[in-house]
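Researcher: Quick test of sequence recovery. Tokens follow.
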């Protein structure tokens, strides 16, 4: 997830993200494409650290490849369902926005169907991706939102 914080409007802006499950080579290319986007904002990237995987090494590799970028790993502490409600509320009140409006609308539709278990195509990964960034951000900068 690539984000920026809009201090003037006090909102977290999701600039780009991928919730695709990719092999390491494709993931590195996809991540590079997101990181290279020049948004003109002081953006940062959050990469989910899956339990029991080599993701911490992967994150360190990405950090070395892009030393001038703000890249962080995030290991979810709470269930997807527990993280979903705060991000849905944040989107409803406008303290979190997605720049790509069709995705924002799709996310709002999906969140109402999300139960943390059902495998609705892309829902679990998309909710996981976006709720993860919100959870990471609020825990890292809880005084801002």
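Model:
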């Amino acid at each position: 997830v690539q984000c920026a914080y809009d201090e003037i409007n006090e909102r977290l802006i999701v600039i780009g993200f991928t919730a695709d499950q990719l092999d390491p080579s494709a993931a590195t290319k996809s991540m590079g494409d997101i990181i290279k986007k020049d948004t003109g904002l002081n953006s940062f990237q959050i990469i989910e650290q899956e339990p029991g995987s080599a993701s911490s090494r992967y994150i360190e590799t990405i950090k070395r490849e892009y030393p001038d970028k703000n890249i962080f790993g995030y290991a979810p502490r709470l269930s997807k369902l527990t993280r979903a409600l705060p991000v849905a509320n944040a989107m409803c009140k406008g303290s979190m926005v997605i720049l790509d409006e069709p995705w924002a609308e799709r996310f709002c539709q999906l969140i109402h169907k999300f139960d943390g278990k059902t495998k609705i195509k892309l829902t679990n990964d998309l909710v996981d991706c976006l709720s993860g960034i919100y959870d990471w951000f609020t825990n890292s900068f809880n005084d801002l939102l």
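The two ends are 18 Å apart (CA to CA).
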